[in-house]
Design brief:
The protein is α/β, with parallel strands linked by helices and 444 residues long. The chain has 16 helices and 20 strands. Bound molecules: zinc ion.
């Protein structure tokens, strides 16, 4: 590669599974937005040879991969904090669904735009989204310069008639996937909401469509204790994962199960043997008192685990750093063991491990060939003082500095946040639009 940009920093944490830390280090980014080389400055210098046109930028601080938020309904910024304190069923029926029935395509664009600015400023470069008016959601992601796996929801519920019958919806999603087939930052998959929100034939049909197109599937599984009771009763007492498996959904290559709180041991084995990944959402689950997923048992069984914030209507922000801390805190409480999920491992869930759970080995680490989704943290932030050895970097990033230390963000080599400001979204305008829409939606 004869041209590109070299970012030189005080420290580089590649999160590539090697445990390496380069102090100082460099990340070389090619003109196609992919990483060419990463390493200590002296080693990385070898890629800047043969008189090529490389721009060298001393950026300082700590460079890490952008974070992966594996379960999101980001346009719910439109409904942030609405119906606080209600139990899940009343919250959905009385507050969320009536408002969502009034949400228009333009609202989704602005809700997603505002969310993208928030995500990027928190260092989250990739999200997995499940919502509706997904063509506008994808347009907002495109404009914001962020990265997204868009999995349009497939739901049979009041208000969803406006998106057609479920077969029409599956066909529409297939078309949207084709439309974005060549997009470098947007991939379209399927979001069958859950076993309880869809007839069996719809779940089987989504599986067929995903297999035919190679698309990923993103589905809510076992979030609350009794959500699957009716489904189990219809299937002779089978658990929801067993039902989804019998319907062929787990025969899809890339399946991401959100929440996975209420699983039996057999369910965990089934996910592992089917290659189904889990998006662990500790903050959302705790806030709604849904329970705590057995993240240690899942990982021990070999289930790939990623982290998710869930939607900002309920959680209520898109801060994946908080999910890292909660994942570790709750797992340690549950196991009675302070050695569970050390900082480097919890960081892995939010980076390369999360990307692996999405079946996206091109994301989540600073390594040659992967997309240059890079975040820069300020090592002068009080949360990073003191750094006495290499291990302190991951520990401070997770436990004390986190989102407040983020200064710069690049996605595919393009800078989208500079000195804490999002360069790609007009945050003032997006805020104005979302405020107006939220007032209109609440008024009915
Ligand atoms: Zn969800």
């Amino acid at each position: 590669v004869s041209s590109g940009t070299r970012l030189v920093a005080d420290a580089v944490l590649p999160c590539d599974g090697s445990g390496a830390v380069h102090r100082p280090g460099a990340v070389d980014i090619g003109p196609d937005g992919r990483i060419v080389n990463v390493g200590p400055v002296a080693t990385a210098a070898e890629s800047v040879v043969d008189g090529g046109e490389w721009t060298v930028r001393w950026v300082g601080g700590l460079l890490m991969p952008g974070l992966v938020n594996a379960h999101c309904h980001s346009p719910m910024t439109l409904l942030r904090g609405q119906g606080e304190g209600l139990p899940l069923d009343r919250w959905l029926r009385e507050v969320i669904w009536p408002r969502e029935a009034r949400i228009g395509a333009e609202d989704v664009f602005w809700g997603m735009s505002l969310a993208a600015a928030e995500l990027l400023r928190f260092g989250v470069t990739t999200t997995v989204e499940m919502y509706f008016h997904d063509d506008l959601l994808a347009q907002a992601v495109d404009a914001a310069g962020s990265r997204c796996i868009v999995t349009p929801g497939v739901v049979v519920a009041p208000g969803w008639e406006r998106f057609g019958t479920w077969p029409e919806r599956i066909e529409w999603i297939t078309g949207l996937r084709e439309q974005y087939a060549e997009h470098p930052r947007i991939e379209v998959g399927f979001g069958p909401h859950s076993a309880y929100a869809l007839p069996d034939e719809a779940i089987a049909a989504v599986g067929d469509a995903a297999r035919a197109t190679g698309a990923p599937v993103h589905v809510h599984v076992a979030e609350t204790e009794h959500e699957g009771d009716e489904v189990s009763a219809r299937h002779g007492g089978a658990t929801v994962p067993q039902v989804l498996s019998e319907l062929g959904l787990f025969d899809v290559d890339r399946v991401l199960a959100a929440h996975a709180v209420w699983l039996t041991e057999k369910d965990v084995d089934l996910l592992a043997s089917s290659g189904v990944a889990v998006a662990h959402c500790p903050g959302s689950n705790a806030k709604l008192a849904s329970g705590t997923a057995g993240v240690t048992a899942l990982r021990r069984a070999g289930v790939p685990v990623a982290l998710g914030t869930d939607g900002p209507a309920s959680n209520n922000d898109l801060d994946l750093w908080e999910e890292m801390r909660l994942a570790a805190l709750l797992a340690r409480q549950r196991e009675g063991d302070p050695t569970v999920l050390p900082a480097a491992e919890v960081l892995h869930l939010a980076t390369a491990g999360g990307a692996a759970a999405l079946g996206r080995p091109d994301l989540g680490a600073l390594a040659p060939g992967r997309w240059a989704d890079v975040i820069r943290l300020d090592l002068d932030d009080p949360g990073f003082v003191p750094v006495l050895d290499d291990g302190d970097l991951a520990a401070h990033a997770v436990w004390s500095a986190s989102r407040s230390a983020i200064r710069d963000v690049w996605v595919g080599g393009r800078q989208v946040v500079r000195d804490g400001e999002c360069l790609t979204v007009d945050v003032t305008e997006a805020g104005r639009r979302v405020r107006a829409a939220a007032a209109r939606l609440a008024a009915g």
